[in-house]
Amino acid sequence: MQLDKTTATGRPLLDISQLEVTYNGVAIAIQGVSMLVQPGKVVVLLGRNGAGKTTTLRAASGFLPIDAAKITDGEITFDGVRIDGKQPHQITKLGMALVPEREKIFRTLTVEENFRMVPMRRPKERGQLMTFIRDLFPALQRRWRATAGYLSGGEIQMLALAKTLLLQPRLLLPDEISLGIAPSLVETLMAALRRINQDTGMAIMMAEQNAAVALEISDYAYVMEAGAIAFEGTPEALMRNETLKDLYLGLGQSGTYAEAGRQRRRGR
Amino acid sequence: MIGSFPVGDVVVSSIVLGGAYILLGLSWVVIFRATRVLNVAVGQFMALGAYMSFTFLVTFKLPFPIAIFLALASIALFAGLTFHFFVRPLHGQPHFVVVVLTIGWSIVIGGAISIIWGPDLHVLPQPVPDTVYLLPLGARLSTYGAATVVVAVLTATALVLFFRFSRLGIRMRAAAELPVLASQSGVNITVLFFIAWALAGICTTFAGIFFGYTNVVSPAVAAIGLRGLTPALIGGFESLPGTILGAFILAFVEVIGVRILGGAAEDAIVAAVLLVFLMIRPTGVFGQAEVRRV
Amino acid sequence: MSDIAMGRPAEPVQSPLEGIWRRMAGSRLKTSYSTELALFRSWPQRVAIVAGVIFVLTLPQTLGPYATGVATIIALTIPGAIALNLLQGVAGQVSAGNAAFLGIGAVVTAFLTGRYPSINFLIVLPLAGLVAAAVGAIVALPALRVRGLYLLISTLALHQIIVYLILVYQEQSVGPAGWFIPVPSIPGLFSIEKPIQWYYFLLVFAAISMLLMSNILRTRIGRAWIAIRDGDIAAEIIGVNVMMGKVQAFVLTSFVIGVQGALFAYYVQVIQHTLFTFDIAIVYISIVIIGGMGSTFGTVLGAALVVGLPYLLQQIAVNAPSDFPLANLFLLHIFDLQIVVYGLMIMGFLLFAPYGLVQLWRRVIGFFRMWPFSTDRTSR
Asked: Which structural domain range is residue C105 located in?
């Protein structure tokens, strides 16, 4: 089930084609991976640990060399520009920003300083954007002058997400932001992502193990397994496939994804 | 004087020496905080600063402000280039590799200084004649001693304010903590690190100049630079206020110790203070322990 | 990571055959336990070792007295360098303590031969080592407590304090002339006076320390040390007492350096506090790095290069034709130039060959072994 490459809005924002990433020159992490992200859409990468979700995001955002990995085949194009092999700050300048899984905030700086240090692409909009962020995450406002390292896990995640917003990306790449976060906070984070997407038109491609919450806000999903794409489709299409729901989404015998969400909230 | 113990003299000497140690300690700390390198060549930067001042003041006979500015600028550039050519390529290697590299570099600089300027001692021409002021309690303060303290405190204050409040300073702290994350945010961390080393170069040059004025310009200046390690350690290599306090503690202990044991014990006293603090608090009195929620 | 999921490693860019050659050249696969454990692994290596031994034993006859003198100093340096190499391997940190422990060993020798003029050197050597080891034991725990650069800083401080104490002791006992050390001898049998005697005598100690290093890693203690070196947290988990291991290594290496200090005292015959400079500690650190960490052979190469280079430069300067343009300048500043070259050498190795001469050596050998295939991605 492939999305048409040229939708009404024109070319895709992010075009990953036959991507192959190798670690330490010997271990192939992902192979033959092709994905699209249309402007303003929310795409989710699902799958188990080690399936290749994080690798894909890191490849797209230029973070591979840190893990001694490199792109050994395929192409990544962002808004018409080839970006495979570019450095993180170059890719950020083009308009795509990763929210990393670990090492995502500056723990020795205060919350306020974490925001201050970000150079914006359109500095005039700083005030406006900071207001939006404070509205999105009121909890951060309360901890404005606190040293970031002492924040709770959920607050850290909010800060990581918020300061990446300051980079004013056209495509945001949250990497497993629900990891280790209490379920109620996960709802808040996902709601924030949805609001960011709807209010600013920012496209989102996120890696998530928590399939149910992610599918609720996504327009399209890719399910990865062992370094390749096993399934892809709209959330509705995925939920109609019982095998898929069982094996990959952990959703058992429930009906629609909304129903699954309700069941989950009720504690199954 | 209290009895025959010159309290005033001890206090004043400690403060003046503390000023010099502040400047040296800051050099070690700024470089370590920014790039996680123990730059052993700091001592030779100091000597180079003193010798360059001599050259600009005596050989080229430039006016005092211009000569000092050139000396500061040249060592700042030298320090930055040291980072760019020697430290940057070793990124990713274990810490001791870079430290030994700076040891090698300090050996090279020492030899080069000896070749260029020879083994003679030099005196820096004084723009303002040195006067000794007699203060109560038997204290004596010289003009250049006072200048040392003033410059040291001003520099330290400027650095503290810079790192605390300026956007560039915050970015430098961010880049020191997580270079990759800072880089992703669009910050040019290479330039930031260069600036950090240049700032350290300026601090050591001040120290070298003042040492040149309160003593002489000689190859032995370099060995003094190593002592800055102690105040830096007391400040945990992180905290600038801690380094300042450490500088005064060290100076005070050293002044008293030298009175009791004689001048030859200087290095040993500094080393002993270092060891004591190493034993009781390796992360320094003010250093931030790892900020991590368990 | 996912190579298990994928089921196969990535294909190398060149042909499969070259890939296999590449990996084999680097790893020297063994096919049985006996070959794994053997000290002398293959017959070319045995031939090389025998040739090396013959060269070293006949050096005074083949190369003459000047070279013998240089070689003697190299031999004197080797035990301390090997000890430092071992320590840095286990502790994972740089130590600047060599000069201090040398000084301790030398001063103990001075003290004992002063107090008991007829004391035999065979008693003095181990005693010097024991005193050094005792000091090492006191300093080890606090110095090794924290990882990172704390061993370097601690030993740096230790150096200053020890040198000062030696200065004080010297002033109180013999004054600026220093201590005079008698000739080591076994009455009625032999005494070590002539340069050639010193050469063979120190060769024995160099050989002992080399064998010690090669073999100690095969003992139970040594295997624990390897575990600590390779990953001290993992070692802790499987029951290796990491702190104890590091302290043991520090104490043992202090002992060796102390003995070396005693040998040094007997060799130079006059001991003063000015002999034990911080530069000496740096010399040992540079030998280990230039030679190659973790390698006995590398240490020998490193010692030969670091100790021998100043003499080589001197010979060049002295024998250069006088109409060589910069000859005068060269001679005038020969001492400082030696220093600059030495510093550049340290930096050069760290920047371009961080695994030392041993790495370069293996690249050369690997080239010949791999020929006619290219070697650009062989060793790392």
From this structure: 63-276
Contact B114 C160 (CB under 8 A): no
Q: Does A200 touch chain B (CB under 8 A)?
A: no
In SS3 terms, chain C reads as CCHHHHCCCCCCCCCHHHHHHHHHHHHCCCCCHHHHHCCCCCHHHHHHHHHHHHHHHCHHHHHHHHHHHHHHHHHHHHHHHHHHHHHHHHHCCCCCCHHHHHHHHHHHHHHHHHHCCCCCHHHHHHHHHHHHHHHHHHHHHHHHCCCCCHHHHHHHHHHHHHHHHHHHHHHHHCCCCCEECCCCEECCCEECCCHHHHHHHHHHHHHHHHHHHHHHCCCHHHHHHHHHHHCHHHHHHCCCCHHHHHHHHHHHHHHHHHHHHHHHHHHHCEECHHHCCHHHHHHHHHHHHHHCCCCHHHHHHHHHHHHHHHHHHHHHHHHCCCCCCCHHHHHHCHHHHHHHHHHHHHHHHHHHCCCHHHHHHHHHHHHHHHCCCCCCCCCC
pLDDT above 80 (res A249): no
pLDDT tops 50 at residue C20: no
The answer to whether B38 faces chain C, any CB pair under 8 Å, is yes
Contact C10 A50 (CB under 8 A): no
The answer to whether residue C21 is domain-embedded is: no
- pLDDT of the residue at C150: 83
- In chain B, the residue whose alpha carbon lies closest to the alpha carbon of C293 is B97
- Is the pLDDT confidence value at A66 over 90? no
ipTM associated with this complex: 0.87
CATH number at residue A68: 3.40.50.300
Q: B7-280: what CATH class?
A: mainly alpha
Mean pLDDT, rounded, for B228-242? 88
User: Is residue C58 in some structural domain?
Assistant: no
Q: Is A7 among the domain residues?
A: no
Q: Is residue C25 part of a domain?
A: no
Same domain for C83 and C124: yes
Q: Find the domain containing A91 and state its range.
A: 14-265
Q: CB distance from B279 to chain C under 8 Å? A: yes
pLDDT-derived band of residue A6, with 50, 70 and 90 as boundaries? very low
Minimal Cβ distance to C3: which of A28, A52, A72: A28
Q: Mind listing the pLDDT tens digit for each residue in C189-206?
A: 788 888 888 999 999 999
Give me chain B's average pLDDT, please. Answer: 87
Instruction: For chain A, say whether C322 makes contact (Cβ under 8 Å).
Output: no
Considering the domain architecture, whether residues C212 and C125 belong to the same structural domain is answered as yes
User: What's this model's pTM, rounded to 2 decimal places?
Assistant: 0.83
Q: Are residues C236 and C368 in the same domain?
A: no
**Same-domain check for residues C167 and C111:** yes
Q: Judge whether B81 is closer than 8 Å to chain C, CB to CB.
A: no
Q: Chain C: nearest CA to A52, how far in angstroms?
A: 8
Structural domain contains residue C70: yes
